[in-house]
Write a structure and sequence with these properties.
Number of domains: 2
Order of helices and strands: EEEEEEEHEEEEEHEEHEE
Number of strands: 16
CATH class of the largest domain: Alpha Beta
Radius of gyration: 18 Å
Strand order of the largest sheet: 1-16-15-13-10-9-8
Strand content: over 45%
Number of helices: 3
Helix content: 10-25%
CATH architecture of the largest domain: 3-Layer(aba) Sandwich
Structural class: alpha+beta
Shape: globular
Length: about 230
Amino acid sequence: MVMKYKNIVTAKFIERPNRFIAKVDIDGEVHTVHVKNTGRCREILAPGTKVFLETSDNPDRKTKYDLVSAVKGERIINIDSQLPNHLVEEWLENQDIFRNISYVKREKTYGKSRFDFYIEADNRKIFIEIKGVTLENDNVVSFPDAPTERGIKHLNELLEAVEEGYEAYVFFVVQLKDVRYFTPADEKHKEFADTLRYVASKGVNVLAYDCSVTANEVIICDKVLVKL
């Protein structure tokens, strides 16, 4: 349940020309870096924000650094979109919600979707879809930070799986600590929020866990209250 970053460098965010790259200031020099999150992250990546970069060990890469987290207020928010799946995969080994797991498969296809995890435990067949959460306001966290038709598709197909006898979970990994609760972001995408409420009422389970975040390390920690 731990993710460790190597060779972290501190920088100052300047701008984000597109969703894949950012311009940052490292000791007075401007560098182009890769952003490990294609979401907007506008509430986090403001000009002048202190950010943390992981140095790539691939000498042939065009960008030497990956932007993985940023400071907002008094805490660090991780924005690495590859992180949640890694954390949940390790979390599955130590959690107590699914007992006696006998089979785990990542990227399992069902219908027209590919869900992040499929597990079998004590004759239970379970699909889990992971969503990383970085949107925070007044210690309340929400998802999504931008419209996501793909997210709605995932929810509807999780419901189809439930109707065919599977268990299904949407697992929101909150990539920061010390939050009051999680709630769907109506103001960002009302249709996704309403769909989440609907599928939850029909048997799709909704989980949220927060993370302890430092510049070098992220640890999945505690269950977060979900308010739909």
